[in-house]
Amino acid sequence: xxxxxxxxxxxxxxxxxxxxxxxxxxxxxxxxxxxxxxxxxxxxxxxxxxxxxxxxxxxxxxxxxxxxxxxxxxxxxxxxxxxxxxxxxxxxxxxxxxxxxxxxxxxxxxxxxxxxxxxxxxxxxxxxxxxxxxxxxxxxxxxxxxxxxxxxxxxxxxxxxxxxxxxxxxxxxxxxxxxxxxxxxxxxxxxxxxxxxxxxxxxxxxxxxxxxxxxxxxxxxxxxxxxxxxxxxxxxxxxxxxxxxxxxxxxxxxxxxxxxxxxxxxxxxxxxxxxxxxxxxxxxxxxxxxxxxxxxxxxxxxxxxxxxxxxxxxxxxxxxxxxxxxxxxxxxxxxxxxxxxxxxxxxxxxxxxxxxxxxxxxxxxxxxxxxxxxxxxxxxxxxxxxxxxxxxx
Length: 393
Prior knowledge:
Elements: H1 2-19, H2 24-28, H3 31-50, H4 52-62, H5 68-91, H6 95-122, H7 133-136, H8 143-169, H9 174-206, H10 212-255, H11 257-263, H12 280-298, H13 304-316, H14 321-341, H15 364-375, H16 377-385
Helix pairs in contact: 1-3, 1-10, 3-5, 3-10, 5-6, 5-8, 6-8, 8-9, 9-10, 10-12, 11-15, 13-14, 14-15, 14-16
């Protein structure tokens, strides 16, 4: 069971790593990102602490039987508090109101953790229990109160989260609403699959019945699944837009390939070091800068006559004026690259012509030019290499 719990904790914690892939100053200055990462990390730590292998190690290192119990329960209370703080920051409001609610939540759960530690110190729990501590000590003085107290504290946080998700989910749309629904499903699964089974098993012990399997077999996997769903709900509205932007950046990076390979010999932009690990948008930005640098270097070789011949050919072929312009500019650019590679003298025509790709913001113009270069290579080659007819007086 420890391996499954560790795997869930790893997946849970990796979400915070993705959220931290941004400038550190921006992350530390954003309470929402910071509280999201704190909640996710604490949730992962709860799963790690609750694993039987971790409990055995902690008990052995400290020399105190069941020392892992208050550690896990305290971590669970901290996670519950972090969830409430995250919801407070997510909902927003005046800075003073948010600060006041955050302080109240931290104070309440800080006091709860302190009481749990005190109750454990007062209890007689000398028999180590790694999987069934809640039911084994359900009737033990002070341990009974400690177990009930951590369950009540966690239940309060999850029920508040459910109420907020239901109410807020009616007011928002899009990814935020999807995230809230995932959080709601995770919280309900926690309430029913983890808390209700724990309560049932403990109460059954109070009345002399044995339903320990609910606490030892059913509750742990339900808690792991609930934590993963909540993690996905927290992270989805913040990660998916960035993931979409990176995917679009990857697509544009590839589509700019034909244009980049054409102007690369003329570009003098400094190359990055090890770029294999960079995100697509960073690589796209470097390729865009390099292409513009190459276009600037090839501008003196632009030949108006090549452009006009290619444009007339495209118009006669039924292309729209915009498509004809792109085809003409692609032909002129290919001719300029050939001239530059051959170290020919620049033509005595308007080398100061401005490409459409340099008149629009973003990469859309460059992508259109790259498509024009890649679209009709045979006709483009004929247009570029066809010699100009001599003028007969």
